[in-house]
Amino acid sequence: MKKTLSLLLAGLMALSMAVSAMAITVTPGNQVALETIYGINGSIYYPIVGLDPVDPGFSVTPNPDALYWFGNATCPVNNCNQKCEVYLLPAETTSLPYAYCKFHGFNLVDFKNVTIPGDTADKTYKITTTSFAGGSILLDGNACMGEKIVNRGATVNVSVVPEYGYITEAVYVNGYYVGDKEVFQLTNIYRDYSIRAIFRKVNVNKPYTITASAEGEGGVYAVVNGKSIGAISSLTGTYADKVTLRFTPVNSNYYVENVVINGVSKGKISTYEVGRMLADMTVKVTFAWNCPFTDVAKEHLAAVEYVSEIDVMGSPNKHIDTDKFMGKNSVTVRAMACYLAELADVDDKLESVAQRIQWAVDNGLLDAKEDQYVKTTWTRACDMLNAFVRLLEKNGNLTFKALEKADTAYAVASAMKLVTEAAYKANGAITRYDMAEICYAVSQLEVK
Known about the structure:
448 residues; alpha+beta; 4 domains; 5-stranded antiparallel beta sheet; 5-stranded mixed beta sheet; 20% helix; disordered N terminus
C-alpha cells in the first residue's frame, strides 16, 4: 500500500498542474507515509521514486512520515474555490506548501490559508548541521557545527563550503538527498531542520583542458594563479590552478554579446571564474559590433562593419546626419576609385584624395580623361574591380582561388557573388551598400 501511494504522489507532484481523477483520502491530523528520496527542481523539492543517495553509507534514514496533512485551504487555481487537502514536505524549503485539489492536482497554496498544528508566532526551531572531513556548513555566513536556534518565520542562508582538495559530494536536508547543492535558503521556517554534507577528496594534479573559441572581433584571455598568459584557444590546468577567463573585444566598438560555458549561456559577461578545475570545459564567446549608424539594413551589416572598422567608408556627411550610412545613395566613379585605393593602402601612404586618384590612374583603375563625377554603373564597377583584384594578385605574386577561371570583368564580380547577370545587363548605378559589399568580398577572397 505504501509503495502504491508513493508512486501516485510522486507522479502528481511532478506534474503539478495536471488534473487527476484520483483523490487521496486521509484522516484529519494524521500523516501519510511516503517512501521516496527527494530531488530538486529549481527551488522546490519534490519526490523522485528510486533515486539513491550518492553514498548510502553516510545517508540518513528518511523519516517515513514524509508527507504531512494539515487541514483544508482554498484551491489556489483561479476561479476554482474548492476546499483542498493541504500537504507539506519536510525537505521542501519554499515558504509555500502544496494543496491537493481533486480538480487540479497539486498546486502551491498561500501559507496564510493553512493552520499548522502546534505552530505559533513565538515558537523557535532548531537547525542541526553535520559535516564530514573536507569542508564545513555555514549558516548566514558563520560556520556552524551543532545547533542553531531560530525564530518562527526566519530565513537562513545555507552555504556548503568544501576545503582545498575536496568537492561537495552530497547534501541532505532532513535526511533527504538534495544533490551537491552548495547554496540555498531555508525560508519562513516552521519546523526543525537537519543538514548534512559529505565531501570527497580529489586528485589535485589531474590535468583538464579548457577549449575556447571566439566569433567576431575579440578573444578569450586567461589569468592562471594571478598571472596573465594572454589569448588562448586551449589551456591545460589542474584543480591546483586558479583560472580566470576574460572576454575582451578588439576595441571599444565591439562588445560581448554572449558567452556559452559547456553549452549553457551565461549572457553578456566579461569575466568568468573557473576556480578549481574539475573537468574539461568548452567556452564559446560571441562578439558583436556597436554599429554607429542608425540606418543600416541587417543584410549589409557585416559589409558596413568591415568598411567602417578599416576606415574606408564612413558617413557621407561631415556635419549633419553623421549617424547615417546612406547605403542607398549612389557612388561616383571618383568615390569608388578612392575607396579601392584606401583598401589597398595598408601602409597609409596615400594622404589625400588627389593622391588616391593618381594611384588609381597609375594602376589602371581610372582613365585620367574620363568624367569621374558620374555615377558608377555596374559595368564600370566590374571593370574597376577586375583591374583592382588583378593588381593585388600581381603585386602579391598570388592567385585568388575563386577568380582563377574568371576571364571577364563580369565573371570576376559574379564569382565574388556581387552581381547577377540581369543586374549587370541592366547596368544601373551601384549604391554605397554595393560598394561596401565589394570591399568586404575582396577581404574574403582566399589565396590558392
